[in-house]
Amino acid sequence: MQRLKLLKPLKHALLSPNGCLVNQTRSAYALPSYTLLDHLQEQVLVEGRAKARAAILNRPSALNAITTDMVSRLNKLYESWEENTDIGFVLMKGSGKAFCAGTDVVLLHQLINEGKIDECKVLFETLYKFVYLLGTYLKPHVAILDGITMGGGAGISLPGMFRLVTDKTIFASPEAQIGFHPDAGASYYLSRLPGYLGEYLALTGDKLNGVEMMACGLATHYSLKERLPWIEERLGKLITDDRSVVESCLAQYGDLVYPDRRSILHKLDKIDKCFGRDTVEEIVDALREEEAVDRSDDWCKATLKKIKEASPLSLKVTLQSVREGRFQPLDQCLVREYRISLNCISKRVSNDFCEGVRARLVDKDFGPKWDPPILEDVTKDMVDAHLLPLSEFEPDLNLPTSVREPSA
C-alpha cells in the first residue's frame, strides 16, 4: 500500500501527452453530399453548455472506433472552440458502452489491401495532429472515460487536463498483439508511468480498470458510473474557464479508491525487475527465472503467454519506442510514432500489421503467421528501419510546435 500511496502525485503528471474494432458502414458514401455531411457530423455530436461544449463520439456499434472523418471533425471543432472566448472549457465522451476502442484498424486493413495507402497516411496524420492539439490545449478539458478506452482512444483523451474514469472503465494498449505499436502519444504517457509499468502494458496488452488508472496516474478523477449524470449536470452549469473550478466540481463527486489485492499494481516490484531489462529477450528470460523460483505464481506464466502471442517484430519496435519516449516531449514522440505507423502499413519490413488484424479481427482464426516468427530472427536493422526518418519523398509529421509551444 505504501508503494501505491507514492503514486498519487503522478495523477497530474500527464498533463501537457487498437484492439477490438468493428468496420464502419460503407453505404453512406453513395448518398448525396448533404446527406453525407449529416452522416459524418452524426459520428461526432456536439452539445452546448452554459460556458462549455461537449464532443460526443457517436459510433457505438463500432465501439466509437476512430476514422479520418471523425478526427478531422474533432480537429476543426477544438480549434474553433479554443478561439471562442464564450467557451470556457471542453468535454469529450463516448456513446454506448465504450469511450473509444481506438483507431478503426479493420478499415485500415481494407484500405491497405485495396492499395489506398495514402488514405491510411491521412488518418495517422490527422489523428496525431489532434493528439498534439489536445496535449497543448489552452482551455481546461474533461474526458469522461466510461467503458472501453484502448489504443487511439486513450490518445485522444489522456493528453488533456482532466481524465475522469469510472467503475466500468477498461484501459489497454493491445497493439503489439495485432502486429502494430502503441501510438497516438502512447510512447509519451506509457513511458511516464511508475517504474517499468508502461513497458509491461505495451508489451503484454494487459488491461487496467478505472481504479488502477487513478493509482498509476493515467486518470485524475474517479466516480461510479451511476454518478455521471450528476457530474455532467453540474459541469454543464459552470460558467468558468478556471481549471481549479472545473477540478473542484469533478472532485465533489469523486471517490477515494485503492486497487484491490489482485491488482497488477501490487506486482510493481516484480514488473520493474523483469521489464526493466534492455531487450525483449532479456525480459522473457527474467520472467522465466521468476517463474522457476515461484511456480505457484501464475502471473509469470500468463505474462509469458501474452508476449508469445504478440508479433516479435512489434515487441522489439514497441520497447524501443517506449524507451525513447522517456526522454522526449509529446511532439517528438508523435513524430517517431508516425514513422513507425507508416512503416507498419507499407510492408517494407513485414506484413505483420495486416496479418495480425486478419487473424484477430477479420477471419478471427487467432493464428497469425508472424514474420519473423521468433524474437531471435528480428534484427536490429529491422527495428531501426521503423524508427529512422522517412525518405526524402515521404515527409515527417509536421506539427505546429513553433505556434503552440513557442518557448519549446
From TrEMBL:
PANTHER family: 3-HYDROXYISOBUTYRYL-COA HYDROLASE-RELATED, SMALL RIBOSOMAL SUBUNIT PROTEIN MS47. Its EC number is 3.1.2.4. Keywords: Hydrolase. GO terms for biological process: L-valine catabolic process. This is 3-hydroxyisobutyryl-CoA hydrolase. Hydrolyzes 3-hydroxyisobutyryl-CoA (HIBYL-CoA), a saline catabolite. Has high activity toward isobutyryl-CoA. Could be an isobutyryl-CoA dehydrogenase that functions in valine catabolism. Residues 53-387 form the Enoyl-CoA hydratase/isomerase domain. Belongs to the enoyl-CoA hydratase/isomerase family. InterPro entries: ClpP/crotonase-like_dom_sf (IPR029045), ECH_dom (IPR045004), HIBYL-CoA-H (IPR032259). SUPFAM superfamilies: ClpP/crotonase.
